[in-house]
Amino acid sequence: MLPPSTDLPSARNDRPSRSEVEDAVRTLIRWAGDDPAREGLLDTPRRVAKAYEEFFAGYETDPADLLSRTFKEVEGYDEMVVLRDIRFESHCEHHMVPIIGKVHIGYLPVRRVVGISKLARVVDAFAKRLQIQEKLTAQIANAINDVLAPAGVGVVVESEHHCMTTRGIHKHGAAMVTSTMLGAFRADPKTRREFQSFLGMNG
User: Fold this and answer.
1) Angle of helix 116-127 versus helix 133-148 axis, rounded to 10
2) Which of 124, 127, 126, 136 has its CA nearest to residue 98?
3) I want to staple 95 with a disulfide (CB 3.0 to 4.6 A). Which of 4, 107, 163, 203 is the partner?
């Protein structure tokens, strides 16, 4: 079932069949200059279709639902919660090649917190779609802000884009860093600096 509230493109309601996907892969193999009927490539269309189901599983996941189960018995805890180094794999929507990196999330809870595994799953829900990093960063922050209603949210994403390292200008080792700061993380420099210090970004 497709999620109702995750900004999904309408094209997801008209998905091609598995056989159409496999035929498309065979076309790409021929266009690349090889023979999809040779022994080593016979099962490639099936494998690619299966891989795409995993690569883009985020279209089938509702991040709001992941965040809906929270814990209120926190003994009044209202200090910053930070989860660092959440590894992710995504795909650039311009060239459909990998974006690989890590996400850091911080938020200031108001009466309730969410299990940390849910934060990691939210990252995957948005990362496993065709993406650009700026949008991915904002989507993660906005989902946490909208569902948990904390005093503030900070999200930092660091990644390597294979559209830059394995094609085009071939600049290996270049890292892109983006951030979205909401609520107290945007309005209060002290809160923002505290978050950055957890990530080793100060000084």
Assistant:
1) 140
2) 127
3) 163
How is residue 196 written in tokens? 């950055």
Q: Which residues have C-beta within 8 Å of that of residue 159, sequence separation ≥ 6?
A: 88, 90, 99, 100, 101, 102, 133, 175, 176
pLDDT tens digit sequence for 57-99: 999 999 999 999 888 877 778 899 999 999 999 999 999 999 9
The C-alpha atoms of residue 60 and residue 56 are separated, in whole angstroms, by: 8
pTM of the model: 0.89
Active site residues: 92-95, 133, 161, 163
Q: Are 8 and 2 in contact (CB under 8 A)?
A: yes
- Single-letter residue type at 175: A
